[in-house]
């Protein structure tokens, strides 16, 4: 287990408070937690691609970053409409 | 390898920044206070992806991870703004400034 995988494991642990806030908080709090969890997940995917020596897996991080952006926009728009 | 020290510094700094923003996310009370921590988390992701780029130089993974880091920071700015707007509409029912609301705004 190299240092990249250790860092990825630490960041996976850091996803737990985001998940707790998503489940327990208000919908807008959950949206903020979801955005921060998406940033953490992007970093985790980059770290896993480097740590596992599968360099082409970094495409997953690229796709996830774009999808996280689109998802955040869509959720924010839905929260505005639903009131 | 002379690259080990900068890689370690960047990696530890990035992971610490993201951990701190998770702590801040849970510790704050209001939604807008929590929203402040999306910025440091994006900068942490940029530091981590810079660490990968320094380790691997400009290769397949180096270029793409740097691009991911920059994209996360840039899209984070837009996401924070859109979310703050959604929070305001969610709380007040409108986006515009109200009559009695004390906001510094430059009239055209």
Brief summary of the model shown:
The complex is a heterodimer of chains A (83) and B (108). Chain A is 87% helix and 0% strand. Chain A has 83 residues and is mainly alpha-helical.
| Shape, per Cα inertia axes of chain A | flat
Termini gap of chain A: 47 Å
What's the gyration radius of chain B in Å? Answer: 19 Å
Low-confidence stretches of chain B: none
- Number of β-strand runs of chain A: 0
What is the string of helix and strand elements of chain B? Answer: HHHH
Main interface by residue count: A-B, 44 and 48 residues
Helix content of chain B: over 70%
> How big a fraction of the residues of chain B is strand?
under 5%
Outline the structure in words.
The complex is a heterodimer of chains A (83) and B (108). Chain A contains 3 helices and no strands. Chain A has one domain (3-82). The radius of gyration of chain A is 15 Å and the shape is flat. Chain A is mainly alpha-helical and 83 residues long. The relative contact order of chain A is 0.14. Chain B is mainly α and 108 residues long. In chain B, helix 3 runs antiparallel to helix 4.
Task: Give the SSE layout.
The complex is a heterodimer of chains A (83) and B (108).
Chain A: H1 3-24, H2 27-51, H3 58-82
Helix pairs in contact in A: 1-2, 2-3
Chain B: H1 4-27, H2 31-35, H3 38-56, H4 60-92
Helix pairs in contact in B: 1-3, 3-4
Structural descriptors:
heterodimer; A: 83 residues; mainly alpha; 3 helices; 87% helix; flat; B: 108 residues; Helix Hairpins; 75% helix
